[in-house]
Amino acid sequence: PAAVDVYGPWADAVWFDEDADPEAARAALGPVLDRLARDHGVRGGTLRTHRRNPHRRGLVTEVTVFGEPPPARFAVREHGLAYEISLTETQHTGLFLDQRDARRRVQLLAAGLRVANLFSYTCSFSVAAVAGGAEVAFSVDLAKAALETGKRNFAANGLEAGGRGKFVREDVRRWLERQLRRKGERPADHAPLDLVVCDPPVFASSREGGRFQVEQEWAAMAGGVAALLGPGGRAVFANNHRGGDHVRYRRELEAVFPRVAEWSPPLDFPRGDDAPQHVRTFHVQA
Fold first, then answer.
1. Distance (Å, rounded) from C-alpha 137 to C-alpha 128?
2. Cβ neighbours, 10 Å, residue 216
3. Which long-range contacts (CB under 8 A, 24 or more apart) does 175-179 make?
4. At the topology level of CATH, where does 92-285 sit?
5. Which residues, at least 6 apart from 178, have a Cβ–Cβ distance to it below 8 Å?
6. What pTM does this model have?
């Protein structure tokens, strides 16, 4: 069980067996990595293994290098836009390739719209929205480093001028509560959103935000987003809970939104018959 994402001449391989160590994973993936080098010009990259933490809930991530060590940071281009990548970070690379088509759709939908990007990470959806002509895009995330990368992504695409990108370091749940309270207290001053992207983690824990579990928060987030959308507003919900009940997740969206459709993943992220889909992306309309 593995996935390999290719970013130009560099690759990021993830091994999903929680009992395997990096050496065993490297040996198992050797033929794949060798073929990438031979046939696709991949010079090197990183291998991530996620092992059970014996002391507390969650996984321990280890990152090892194969081939040439990749640069600490480098840029890739997707649909004409530049995004910063870092393969040496322990968590993620900076860009989720399985959302490539969704970013393009958001870019095509965003002209003239007020957009909020919740759990924005490195703000790639916000970049796509502003590049597509959004009036404003709010990027909301608790991770300061991710938002700083997002600012660099805006600058790399010449989008920092004009203030259309807004960066908010806050727990998304608190941000939603604050917007809903403001709407209730000062309805005349409330400017509804036209498009919301909500791509939450499956599980997260931090000193500032506390514990987050998507199973427990999904329905409330759907309701909060719906309340902030204007008439005909749209939202994109992404769910990465591979072991979750996606029938239930869809029904919780359908309880709030009259129109719910599922976007297919890119062709290079095929749906396996015997494996859960990596991510499910829902497009909903108020």
1. 10
2. 9
3. 175/118, 175/140, 176/118, 176/221, 176/224, 176/225, 176/228, 177/224, 179/224, 179/228
4. Rossmann fold (3.40.50)
5. 170
6. 0.93
Contact of 78 with 103, CB cutoff 8 Å: yes
Give the pLDDT score at 56: 62
Tokens read off for 165 = 């990108």
Closest to 186 measured CA to CA, from 196, 178, 174:
178
Q: What is the pLDDT of residues 181-228, one digit of tens each?
A: 999 999 999 999 999 999 999 988 888 878 999 999 999 999 999 999
Unique residue bearing structure tokens 């909301």: 140
Q: Which residues pair with residue 211 across a beta bridge?
A: 205
Q: What residues contact residue 88 under an 8 Å CB cut-off, 6+ apart?
A: 46, 63, 70, 72
Cα–Cα distances (Å) from 123 to 52, 83, 118, 141, 208, in that order, read 29, 9, 9, 9, 20
- Comparing 60-69, 121-130, 148-157, which segment has the lowest mean pLDDT? 60-69
- In this predicted structure, the answer to whether residue 276 has a pLDDT above a threshold of 70 is no
CA distance 63 to 132: 35
Segments making up each domain of the chain, as ranges:
2-70, 92-285
Amino acid at 185: E
Q: Which residues contact 41 (CB under 8 A, 6 or more apart)?
A: 9
Which pLDDT band, with edges at 50, 70 and 90, does 50 fall under? confident
Residue 219's nearest CA partner among 262, 258, 257 is 257
Tokens for 188, please give them: 């005349």
